[in-house]
C-alpha cells in the first residue's frame, strides 16, 4: 500500500515539476530565467517542509496521523493546480489573431497558492510514509529484519517508476492533448492510492511517540549541549551515567553503546557525578551531529541533479528561430543520462537508507528529512547558482553562460564548472565517510546479555570501552535488547 501511494505521489509531483517551467513560459508568459528560479524555489520548499512534518510526527501526532492530515492537504493542492490549468479565467487566453495577454496578478497568485498548498502537504507525507512503511517490520524478528533490508530498494523503485510515467506519459499528454487532462490523471491516481492506503488501516503497526521524543527532539539536543558546556572543565573520570535495562524497557527505548572518536566533547554531558544526561542521550546527539556532516557533503550532488533537470528544459525551449539548432541524434545524449540515472538511483537509495538507519529510534521521521531537505537545499542552491553565474558571466564575459538565447551562451563552460565542483565534493565526501562512526546497539543474544551486565550494571558505563566488541555482541546497524 505504501509503495503504491509513493508511485502515484511521485507521478503527481513530477507531472507538475517536470513541465512547470514550460507551463510558466508558454502559458503564463513568463521569462525563462525567472521561471527556472521560481520552479527551483518551489521544488526546494517541497523538499524542505518535511522537516516540520517530521518534527510534528516524532514529537506529537505520530507518523500515521501526520500523514493522514497532510495527504489531504496535498490532494487539495493537486485539485487546485488542476483547476488552475483547466479553467479559462485562471490562466491567460489568446485571441484568434494569436495575441496572448500576460498572466494577471490574480492568475499568478492562484497558481502559486495551489503549488505551495501542495508543498505544505508534502511536508507531512514525505518523511512519514517511508518511515511508516519501515515500521511495519519488526526489528527484533530475524526474518522481518531481512525483508526490511530490501524495503527501501522497492520503495525507491516505486518512486522512480512513478517519475518515469510522469516524464514519459504525462508530459506528452500535457503538451499534445491538454494541460487539464495532463493534470487530472495524476490527481485522480493520487486520490485512488489514498483510498487503497486507508483500506489497510486495521492491519498496520503503529509505533507510539516515545517518552524521550514527546517533548521534542530539539529539547534533547539542547539539554545535551548545555550539559556538555556546563561540564567542559570536568575531566572524564572513566565512568559515565547510564540507566539500566529495565528503565529502557519501560520507556520503550533502545540502549546505545558508547563510541569514541568523533564529538568526544559531548561525553562530558554524561559525567556520572553530574547525572545530567545518559550515555544513550549523548550518543543520540552524536548520531545527529554526524548525520549533519554527511548531509552537508551530499548537497552538491543534489544541486547538480537539480541543474540537470532544469537546464534540460531550457535547452529544449530557449533556442530562437527556426534554424537555430543543429539536428542531433538522441544517442549523443544517451551515455551521460544513463550514467546520471544510475548514479541517482544509488545515491537516493543509499542516502535514504543511511539516514533512516542512523537516526535515533524516536527520531526516524526527522532523520529521513536529512534526505528530503538535502534535495530542497539543492534546489535553492541551484537557483542561487543560476542567478550568480548569470550575473557574473554577463558582466565579465560580455554574455551570460545561461542566457535566454542559448546559442549565444556557453553551457559548455557552465557544465565544466559543475564538473570541477563535483570532483572537489567527491574528495571531501570520501574524507568524511572514512571518519564516520556508525551507530552501535545491543543485540538480543547471550553475548549482549553478558556485555550489558559488564557495562550497564549499577547504572554506569565505562568511558574507555574498547572500539571493537566481540562479533556476537554488537555490529553496525544491529538491534538492541529491549
TrEMBL record:
The keyword Transmembrane is assigned to this record: yes
InterPro entries: MFS_trans_sf, POT_fam
Keyword Transmembrane: yes
Annotated transmembrane regions: 64-85, 152-173, 179-199, 287-308, 337-356, 413-434
Provenance organism: Triticum turgidum subsp. durum
Gene Ontology, cellular component aspect: membrane
Membrane topology category: Multi-pass membrane protein
GO MF entries: transmembrane transporter activity
Family listed: Belongs to the major facilitator superfamily. Proton-dependent oligopeptide transporter (POT/PTR) (TC 2.A.17) family.
Keywords carried by this UniProt record: Membrane, Transmembrane, Transmembrane helix
Subcellular locations according to the entry: Membrane
Protein known as: Uncharacterized protein
